[in-house]
Amino acid sequence: MSGFGVLFVLLTLQQQPADLIVLNARVYTADVTRPVAEALAVRGGRIAFVGSARGALALVGPRTQRLDLGGQTVIPGMVDAHAHLLGLGQALRTVNLVGTRSYDEVIARVVERAKTARPGEWIRGRGWDQNDWADTRFPTHQALSSAVPNNPVYLTRVDGHAALVNAKALELAQVTAATPDPTGGRFIRDSAGNPSGVLVDGAQGVVGRVIPAASHAIPSASTLAAIAEANRWGLTGIHDAGVDADGIAVYEDLAREGKYDLRNYVMIRSDDSTLDAFMKRGRQIGLYDGRLWIRSIKLVADGALGSRGAALLEPYSDDPGNTGLITTTPERIKSVAVRALKAGFQVNVHAIGDRANRMVLDQFEAAFKEVPVADHRFRIEHAQILRYQDIPRFAELDVIPSMQGSHQTSDMYWVPNRLGWARAQGAYAWRSLLNTGVVIPNGSDFPVEAVNPLISFHSFFTRQDADNFPPGGWMPEQRTTRQEALWSMTLWPAYAAFMENESGTLTAGKFADFVVLDRDIMTVAPEEILKASVVMTVLGGRVVYRK
User: What CATH number does residue 139 fall under?
Assistant: First the structure.
């Protein structure tokens, strides 16, 4: 077809009536070519026009739906670039320990759940954080075991990198003083060497393997509940950090049935059997009307800072002699990276401590030398603690730091105790990284943090918590701009998932994914942002949540 013919087709398509027009809105497009508009039009699940009311009204047909927003704010559908959908689904069905202010409160919530549990049934919970208690030491199982002696109890710490279990659970898993620490994990022990009940990183699996697997019906129901929760907070997409073959099968079943109201960029787990299966299958792009992308691999290099499992170059300031845990060997990281580069897959590695981040950068660099690829978009997930000399290496190696704003505002109260003030200068170093030329896709790591993406948006440019503490922000020199904070929830996650031509901005031709808010988060005072409510979440031109 000639160039004139292509132009004629495009112009003809542009004049076809819209399915939906949105009018009387303050539209922030995240597109630098048209940053702000007052209207948009949708056709066939994609954006047909963004601009003036006059332009949108030109696409009105006899069946066009009109949506007058009365001056409300529209932004692109928000995307959480590091989340755990199955974890959220499970958290919605288990004992919620988020926000507990003492070990006694944790026990009380478990006791309440035990009243309705069947004999011998496992009681699961998630969300405790000893850093929020008056006594910030790890708890021991004795009080929990005394309160709930007959049901095994497994309570995951807020970061997912540690768990507290009772004596019944230890008994069923046959964990005793003689049980050795597994590779990449640790049983916290008392002075006599007996397990205290706290399992760090790899030690969780020793107990977790004896917990009965849930039926297929439960993951399906909990996944739908998690998707609905994500939509409620204005999320139209997530990057799902580490899903096994069974979880992906659940996703595909739901998407095939038309029930999957989310765009999920799935990072597959990196065990050999899962890698073999999905590399044989090849990259999966935009399955089921753009609901699933399966083209990336998740590895975990270390633990978490809150449970002192993050791998540091020097010992923890509040735990001398402990430098954290390396949970995946350097050789494994390089071998998976080489294999992924050859197959066209992306690799995304969890690394929190400065030792883990340096190790991952080193192994990525070695892999890139062995298999040169121009546009690999490999990522480090979290990149929380960095040494100054490693910050420029992200841009030099074209590695994307995928970070979570809400982690900074949750952790800032105790990070200096863990690291000392000098090392804390390399914590959550957003501005230092942005100044090198990289982008930073933002997220929450839910259910580690709350689902609400506006928390991380707010954290990025204020570095303050919901109470606007501390004045001026924690290490304010690392703040982003408000526009960068918007990109971090929209355009930058799209780029980090090879989806920038499909989503991330409100631009003609892209998916019609957008969110209506009851206040203008781009202009209101920072302390007003977390008061904003989602009025409507739209995925592919269809409302998936309405307040």
Answer: 3.10.310.70
What was the pLDDT predicted at 90?
87
Would you say residue 160 lies in a domain?
Answer: yes
Instruction: Please report whether residue 158 resides in a domain.
Output: yes
Question: What was the pLDDT predicted at 14?
Answer: 58
Beta strands in 87-152 (DSSP E): 95-96, 123-128
The answer to whether residues 112 and 140 touch, using CB atoms and an 8 Å cutoff, is no
What confidence tens digit (pLDDT) does each residue in 338-357 have?
Answer: 999 999 999 999 999 999 99
36: Cβ–Cβ under 8 A, 6 or more apart, which residues?
26, 27, 28, 29
Cα–Cα nearest to 197, from 159, 146, 163, 174: 163
Q: Which residues of 364-383 are buried (b: 16+ CB within 10 A; e: fewer)?
A: bbebbeeeeeeebbbbbbbb
Which residue range(s) make up the domain with 115?
Answer: 88-208
DSSP 199-249: EEETHHHHHHTTSPPPPSHHHHHHHHHHHHHHHHTTEEEEEEEEE-HHHHH
Token pair listed for 58: 């030109």
Count of domains forming the chain: 1
Peptide bond into 470 cis (omega under 30): yes
Determine contact, residues 310/352, Cβ cutoff 8 Å. Answer: yes
Does 119 map to a domain?
yes
Distance, in Å, from the CA atom of 67 to the CA atom of 24, rounded to the nearest integer, reads 9
Residues of the chain where predicted confidence (pLDDT) is lower than 50? 1, 6, 9-10, 12-13
- Cα Rg for the chain, rounded, in angstroms? 24
**The whole model's pTM is what?**
0.87
Whether 361 is in a domain gets the answer: no
